[in-house]
């Protein structure tokens, strides 16, 4: 394919799921011979550093969002609206950069921002708009202009809206017709792919049921299974359900249940308070049942030490953690809400449980404690299925084809 020239607009400082997907995508595009430029609102932060490490041309242009937290007080909301009034200035700067860099298309990485769309209209360029979040259901965000008016403006920009799941597309089906959109699942970096169970057998002693891996019987005769829940401490991630499920299992006599909680609190007071509540909750369980790892930079290595992953979020727009877990050969127990049921085939590569119910989650975890050999079977199925759908190559192929269609090349 002939090399294309694309300008991307990132929306945040640190590497959340959306920004990890962006870094993976633009790095792949660069390796394929395309010219890529990324605009970031902050020079300091993980996103800027990650892009520079990949040799990507990055330009800092500050701008605000056209979404804001619903819970903010009236003064903060007013200040945010005032900031939004300055948006045309940032849009003109991005448009100028696009002309200077000879970009042929602008790609915004989040529904939380509209500055890229504004710049595309100024330049007369097609615009790809990645909707990677519900906004209201997952992050309690609201559009400054209201959902209906914002969606009307979005479809009036020539180009395409990309949803990362069918569930997310349905969330906007009244406002955004299918003709204006497409669904492309997120792609996971090849660095996070690990096949534990080739030919249905453990790849090394650490993970082999027959060789005495984590899911073997311990000295008390209990099957020991290590569960993992990953994500920053946010009430919407519902880590408390995983800890409560462990308490239920311990009371039922399953002494081999182990839970690793990987993640850290954000700068928000609510996040830090939630972390304190989680740790206080875990102290009530037998020693060694719950381990808090803190922030983990190398999740691939951590997943090699665990057996089954838990996704307790009530409303995932895609489920990046779910896909990463499967590509690491870990079966997943996930809530039966949001886009999670699009990734988990119940009983094949994991289980679904009633969203919000610690009792239902404990029931699914009990299955692996009672039948640890099923971890190998489901882990192998999870790996095979995810490799066919959720790799970075599949994602970049689909986005590249979308660009080509829009640019008629």
Describe the protein:
With 409 residues, the chain is of the alpha/beta class. It folds into 2 domains: 200 residues, 3-Layer(aba) Sandwich (Rossmann fold); 200 residues, Rossmann fold (3-Layer(aba) Sandwich), CATH 3.40.50.2000. Helix content is 41%, strand content 16%. The protein has a 7-stranded parallel beta sheet with strand order 3-2-1-5-6-8-9, sandwiched between helices. α9 crosses α14 and α12 packs across α15. The longest helix has 17 residues. The chain is globular and about 65 Å long. It starts with a strand and ends with a helix. About 2% of the residues have low confidence.
How would you summarize the topology of this molecule?
Elements: E1 5-9, H1 17-31, E2 35-40, H2 46-53, E3 57-60, E4 67-69, H3 74-84, H4 87-100, E5 105-108, H5 115-123, E6 127-131, H6 136-139, E7 141-143, H7 147-155, E8 159-163, H8 166-171, E9 181-183, E10 225-230, H9 239-251, E11 257-262, H10 269-282, E12 290-294, H11 299-304, E13 308-311, H12 320-327, E14 332-335, H13 340-343, E15 350-353, H14 358-370, H15 373-389, H16 392-407
Parallel strand pairs: 1-2, 1-5, 2-3, 5-6, 6-8, 8-9, 10-11, 10-13, 11-12, 13-14, 14-15
Antiparallel strand pairs: 4-7
Helix pairs in contact: 1-16, 4-5, 9-14, 12-15
């Amino acid at each position: 394919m002939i090399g294309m020239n694309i300008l991307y607009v990132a929306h945040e400082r640190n590497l959340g799921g959306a920004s990890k997907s962006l870094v993976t995508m633009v790095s792949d595009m660069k390796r394929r011979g395309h010219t890529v430029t990324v605009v970031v609102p902050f020079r300091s932060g993980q996103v800027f550093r990650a892009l520079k490490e990949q040799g990507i041309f990055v330009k800092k242009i500050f701008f605000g969002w056209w979404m804001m937290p619903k819970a903010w007080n009236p003064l903060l909301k007013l200040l945010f609206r005032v900031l939004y009034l300055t948006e045309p200035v940032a849009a003109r700067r991005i448009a100028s950069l696009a002309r200077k860099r000879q970009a042929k298309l602008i790609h915004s990485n989040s529904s939380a921002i509209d500055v890229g769309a504004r710049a595309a209209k100024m330049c007369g360029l097609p615009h790809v708009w990645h909707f990677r979040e519900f906004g209201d259901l997952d992050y309690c965000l609201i559009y400054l202009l209201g959902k209906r008016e914002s969606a009307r403006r979005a479809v009036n920009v020539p180009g395409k809206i990309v949803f990362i799941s069918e569930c997310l597309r349905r969330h906007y089906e009244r406002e955004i017709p299918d003709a204006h959109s497409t669904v492309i699942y997120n792609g996971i970096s090849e660095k996070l792919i690990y096949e534990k169970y080739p030919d249905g057998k453990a790849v090394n002693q650490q993970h082999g049921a027959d060789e005495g891996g984590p899911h073997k019987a311990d000295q008390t005769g209990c099957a020991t299974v290590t569960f993992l829940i990953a994500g920053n401490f946010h009430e919407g991630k519902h880590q408390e359900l995983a800890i409560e499920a462990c308490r239920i299992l311990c009371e039922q006599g399953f002494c081999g249940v182990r839970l690793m909680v990987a993640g850290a609190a954000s700068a928000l007071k609510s996040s830090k308070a939630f972390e304190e509540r989680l740790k206080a909750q875990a102290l009530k369980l037998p020693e060694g049942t719950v381990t808090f790892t803190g922030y983990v930079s190398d999740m691939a290595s951590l997943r090699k030490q665990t057996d089954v992953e838990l996704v307790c979020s009530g409303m995932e727009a895609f489920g990046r953690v779910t896909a990463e877990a499967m590509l690491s050969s870990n079966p997943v127990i996930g809530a039966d809400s949001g886009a999670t049921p699009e990734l988990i085939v119940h009983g094949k590569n994991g289980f679904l449980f009633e969203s919000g119910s610690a009792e239902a989650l404990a029931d699914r975890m009990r299955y692996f404690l009672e039948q640890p050999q099923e971890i190998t079977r489901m882990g192998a199925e999870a790996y095979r299925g995810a490799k066919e759908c959720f790799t970075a190559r599949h994602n970049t192929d689909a986005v590249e084809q979308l660009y080509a269609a829009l640019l008629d090349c």
